[in-house]
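We emphasize that the prediction below concerns an isolated chain of 370 residues; any contacts that depend on oligomerization or on bound cofactors are therefore not represented. The input was used exactly as deposited, without trimming of termini.
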Amino acid sequence: MPANRSTFTRRGLVAVAALPLLALTATACGYGSDSDDSSKENVSAKGKALSADTVKIGYFGNLTHGTALVGNQKGFFQKELKGTQAKYQVFNAGPSEIEALNSGSIDIGWIGPSPSINGYTKSKSKSLRIIGGSASGGVKLVVNPKKIKSLDDVKGKKIATPQLGNTQDVALLNWIAEKGWKVDANSGKGDVSVVRTDNKITPDAYKSGSIDGAWVPEPTASKLVAEGGKVLLDESDLWPDKKFVITNIIVSQKFLKEHPDVVEAVLRGSVKTNKWINANPDEAKATANKQLEKDSGKALPADVLDPAWKSIDFTDDPLASTLDSEADHAVKAGLLEKPDLAGIYDLKPLNKVLAATGGSKVDDAGLGVK
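Result of the prediction step, given as a token string:
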């Protein structure tokens, strides 16, 4: 375990906007249409509405957003919301989801750590709060085994990441630095050529030979394996206890203040969804794939779905200390100036839900609201 994976809490630092290149930050990957409206629910709103008539929920058409996929498909969120109608929107990229949150087009979203950090710092701590965890893991370095046989062989090769400054891009740049190699973060040029490639076209880029491998989330990683690629490194092996945040839940601060009962209902739905996923992994996998097919028009084949789902850990814990580390990695890579993340979390509603269901309290690593 590399020594600089240890975490620390940054306090008193000046909140700054990301460097211009981080404006391109995206979360993991998306397979639905950008901002697709998926508001026709499987479960109708029944009973008395809560303090809002509707709640607009965003997520990615991505297996690491499995809590949202399953919770939507099974109606777990709608059941908790009673007469308040859940409306869903599917996104392809973190910036568009953050923009939707800021404009009020969505109220709550499943999203990755990098756009959460970026959205929070660029708004000077005014736009969002992270209110819960969703998933850990599901990110791998997959390579062409004919060209790359060991980790040291990555030097001099072309490795794809989903987007400049996104969660996996930061992880790869940090790993490269830990190897003692040099890469210019902006251009991607150096001892390793970092090629920013949309996840939707990464498998084709791999097949054509224009990249030698990719540091990508699921299901893109398993799509590459299905094309003959080999998993050279699972990112979870680089983290304490093999856990790191890949997806968390955010809410607009305005919506949280005005409709805490609705937020709590969505969190109850999330906790119950994660419990059901972990108790019924095979059915949950099929359920997530069914929602993916509904959102994108195409289900994943078994040789991609099965290994991808197996590598993801669904959890209510936001793994806050690892988000702090991911921010530190972005700073070291030159993608972000030191942010003040104090107050990015508000886990009081989640801990209330967990206490009511017999769950264990989760920690904000000192980055919660006071």
